[in-house]
Design brief:
The protein has a single domain, classed as Immunoglobulin-like, CATH 2.60.40. 17% of the residues lie in helices and 43% in strands. It has two helices and ten strands, in the order αββββββαββββ. A hairpin with a 4-residue loop joins strand 9 and strand 10. The chain is elongated and about 45 Å long.
């Protein structure tokens, strides 16, 4: 009887350890494409977007004079989107900004495609191991409140043609 207990206890400990480590798995081992979240892929390619951030992490809504909904929104949320590259040059391809007020009501949105990005910025290149700041703003306030969250989605392409999508969330007050 004592021998049986001595064998069961280690088995239970090993089983519990295996199950608890499964719950902590972040999925890195099964990735097959580059990602801004995962450190590497099955083919052992390093991710090419090192960081996507905003400066500051909280923005203050700016009132727009002579606003007239729905043609001119009463507020703008200006934000600096910071993109950092790892070992390869990156090119900013697309940016989407979406505002939600604190009640979850979808406010203004803005999609900036590659042709509009060319008119806003002289270059969309983020050099290898470098960082670029892209100042943008999203109009909002015709629907919903003035306080909320701005969601920013950025699409970049590296010199090999690999596309990556990153996102960041900014509080708007």
């Amino acid at each position: 009887m004592l021998m049986r207990r001595a064998l069961v206890a280690p088995f239970l400990c090993v089983s519990l350890a295996a199950l608890s480590s499964y719950g902590c798995d972040d999925g890195n081992a099964m990735s097959s494409a580059p990602s801004a979240v995962r450190a590497q892929t099955v083919r052992n390619e390093a991710r090419f977007v090192n960081r996507l951030d905003s400066v500051p992490h909280e923005v203050t809504a700016v009132a727009v004079p002579a606003a007239f909904c729905p043609f001119v929104s009463p507020f703008l949320a200006p934000v600096n989107v910071v993109v950092s590259a790892n070992s390869s040059d990156l090119f900013l391809q697309d940016m989407q900004l979406q505002f939600f007020d604190i009640a979850g009501v979808r406010g203004g949105s803005r999609t900036i495609n590659s042709s509009e990005l060319l008119t806003l910025f002289p270059s969309m290149l983020i050099p290898a191991f470098g960082t670029r700041t892209f100042p943008v703003s999203v109009p909002f306030g015709c629907v919903g409140g003035q306080t909320g969250t701005l969601f920013i989605r950025v699409v970049t392409v590296d010199t090999s043609g690999r596309q990556d999508v990153g996102s960041v969330r900014v509080n708007a007050r």
